Amino acid sequence: MKKNCILLRYGELALKGKNKKEFENQLVNNIRQKVKRFPGTVVTKSPGRIYIDLNEEYFEPVIQACSEIFGLVGICPAIRVEKDWEKIKEAALALLSERKERVQTFKINAKRADKQFPIPSQEMNHRLGGFLLAKLPHLKVDVHDPDLTLFVEVRKEHAYVYGEDLPGLGGLPVGVSGRVLLMLSGGIDSPVAGFLALKRGVELQAIHFHSYPYTSERAKQKVIDLAKILTRYGGHIRLYVVPFTEIQTEINKHCYESYSITIMRRFMFRIAEQIAKKHKALALVTGESLGQVASQTLESMQTINAATTMPVLRPLVGMDKQEIMTISKRIDTYETSILPYEDCCTVFLPKAPKTKPHLDVAERQERLLDVERLIQEAVENTEIIDLRPEDEEEFSYF
Ligand code: ATP
Ligand code: MG
Q1: Rounded to the nearest whole angstrom, what is the distance from the C-alpha of residue 353 to the centroid of ligand 1?
Q2: For residue 370, is pLDDT > 80?
Q3: Which positions does UniProt annotate for ATP binding (predicted)?
């Protein structure tokens, strides 16, 4: 008898009523979307559980795919059998025998979700424990700290037996919390911020400011690659690439050097707000933390933030660089982020950026620029690139 399905557990039990239904429907959709490249798989839902029938598909890649889905807390490779006591015993024996060397102690955790089934949960625990001890005499029962917990779930249609509960990503299913616009640079932080925003169930779009020819095509490709990696967790992601050269040149020509970063970032927020509104995103997301660089002091944030009235989410605000890097490695963006291509923020980097820029000074400086026209032109010339996960087609238009 071999494993033939994956049982998926999901969390956020606090959700109730209409929210819960929406959460479950979105989660099932996201799972179907994710595993559709494995044509044998069939995804079904029963109260409190989601199952993937494997139908001869390999386990590992499907489990890997599930480990990239927000909303799942447990991924359990299982044997599904008829609701027949003999079959359940056989499945339990198969699972335990398979793990012979590493397992010395075990316990059974049986659950009778279908009350029509004649054997109550406690009795299943005892009878199955006794059966396994007789068959595999080297084993012992340890109810407190066993090497393996064998789960048995008797549900309406089938019974499931499993001994592994691999951790899922947690969070909320992507799509239940509305749409946000991620300000995506080529650095380490913003892709992590995007990942953490996705974790709370948002649908992600991304915006990147590009200063060609000061920043190269390769720098742009790097950002496309980062967005593409995020599609593993977020599904389809639309990336807006905004031409930023003229704005930076104008700032450089007319404004105080020490204010150039502040003003540049105020432009970024204004343009991002326009694009967000046009495409129905409800908030902006950045990879800013506190205190890393000149533009990330509270005074600076206040002056920059005053350029927009939209909520700005900063999921990294409480994190150290080390923690951010750890996540970046885990989600596979790190290696791409550290490629040494220039970013528009570094091209025109002032020698001594103002760490506490004043709003009135920034506003006065901006009066020397044709702000409206610059923004309008940048928005109009924005390139849209649609990125899709895996081997799905990728296309772009202008
Ligand atoms: P990151 O590692 O994400 O580049 P950082 O530590 O380098 O962040 P900054 O350069 O101050 O910090 O940028 C702060 C945030 O501003 C970034 O996390 C990103 O959200 C946004 N940002 C910076 N440059 C760009 C850009 N060229 N396009 C879009 N967003 C940008
Ligand atoms: Mg950066």
Answers
A1: 16
A2: yes
A3: 183-184, 208-209, 265, 287, 296
Q: How far is the CA of 169 from the centre of ligand 2 (A)?
A: 26
**Which of the pair, 296 or 180, is modelled with greater confidence?**
180
- The helix/strand/coil state of 310 is coil
Read off the pLDDT of residues 158-211 as tens digits, 9 standing for 90 and up: 999 999 999 999 999 999 999 999 999 999 999 999 999 999 999 999 999 999
CB of 295 sitting under 6 A from ligand 1 = yes
Cα dihedral 210→211→216→220 (10° resolution)? 0
User: DSSP labels for 336-396?
Assistant: HHTS----HHHHT--SS--SS--HHHHHHHHTTS-HHHHHHHHHHT-EEEEE-STTS--EE
First to last CA, the chain: 55
Contact 74, 166 (CB under 8 A): yes
Question: Taking every pair of C-alpha atoms in the chain, what is the biggest distance, in angstroms?
Answer: 87
Ligand nearest to the CA of 192: 1
Q: What pTM, to 2 d.p., does this model score?
A: 0.92
The answer to whether residues 302 and 360 touch, using CB atoms and an 8 Å cutoff, is no
Distance 390 CA to ligand 2 centre (A): 26
- Which token pair is 146? 């066993």
Task: Tell me which ligand sits closest to the C-alpha of residue 183.
Answer: 1
Residue-wise pLDDT for 216-256, tens only, equals 889 999 999 999 999 999 999 999 999 999 999 999 999 99
What is the C-alpha separation between 208 and 194, in angstroms, rounded?
A: 13
Per-residue pLDDT of 1-30, as tens digits, reads 888 999 999 976 556 677 888 899 999 999
106 is in an annotated binding site: no
